[in-house]
Amino acid sequence: GAVVSQHPSRVICKSGTSVKIECRSLDFQATTMFWYRQFPKQSLMLMATSNEGSKATYEQGVEKDKFLINHASLTLSTLTVTSAHPEDSSFYICSARGMGGANYGYTFGSGTRLTVV
Amino acid sequence: AQKVTQAQTEISVVEKEDVTLDCVYETRDTTYYLFWYKQPPSGELVFLIRRNSFDEQNEISGRYSWNFQKSTSSFNFTITASQVVDSAVYFCALSEGEGTTDSWGKLQFGAGTQVVVTP
């Protein structure tokens, strides 16, 4: 149980365009989803926390207008990288926390490798 | 402040050697969870273990073992008889708080340790 699905796994986009990444909880209801970013050869850093039905909370230094997060249902959260630039190229990965503590956020999606050209 | 420290950037071993990865954490919470993940070159995070702050028992799972010592705030990971397939980056992570707090499920990662196992 506690499966988190993330799509796409890999995306290449042109500079200035927007990219949407989806994170789904397949077998539980995720009241909270976490979005992380990992630059090459670096650790994972939390970008934002999204709660179903409310605005996301962004970590310091993360531009909320650039990284739009929508958590409209208990099974889906999306991260949209708007007006992407080469410096946004990174590995983005999500995890989810369910009701009653289900999945404590320790199962991750498979990640999305974004390359902006 | 860095809450999870993995001082070893890279460890290289020859197959069948044992390798121990160090993890030192910092927290003021009495309830917290510690994790280890494996990240192979493909990028996905493979969950290895979760340990809560009230359970200091060491754990063994196949060739993997973990040593949790609250007195030294350490949660070390040992791979016994390493294999080439163990080559990956290994992350230690900390989650503070408990089920009713906002931080529940939010992970803080160490810098990671690259393990290279050669035949």
Alpha carbon gap, first and last residue of chain A: 37 Å
Order of helices and strands of chain A: EEEEEEEEEE
How many whole angstroms does the radius of gyration of chain A measure? 13 Å
Report the helical percentage of chain A.
under 10%
Q: Regarding quaternary structure, how should these chains be classified?
A: heterodimer
Number of helices of chain A: 0
Poorly predicted residue ranges of chain B:
none
Based on CA inertia axes, which overall geometry of chain B fits? globular
* Major β-sheet profile of chain A: 6 strands, mixed
Low-confidence stretches of chain A: none
Series of H and E elements of chain B:
EEEEEEEEEEEE
Provide the residue-averaged pLDDT of chain B.
92
Largest interface: A-B, 25 and 21 residues
Number of helices of chain B: 0
Helix content of chain B: under 10%
Q: Which secondary-structure class do the elements of chain B indicate?
A: mainly beta
Architecture overview:
The complex is a heterodimer of chains A (117) and B (119). Chain A has 117 residues and is mainly beta. Chain A has strands at 4-7, 10-13, 19-25, 30-38, 44-51, 57-58, 67-73, 76-81, 90-98, 112-116. In chain A, the strands form two sheets. Chain A has a six-stranded mixed beta sheet with strand order 2-10-9-4-5-6, with no helix packed on it. In chain A, strands 1-3-8-7 form a four-stranded antiparallel beta sheet, with no helix packed on it. Chain A is globular, with a radius of gyration of 13 Å. Chain B contains no helices and twelve strands. The interface between A and B is medium-sized, with 25 and 21 residues.
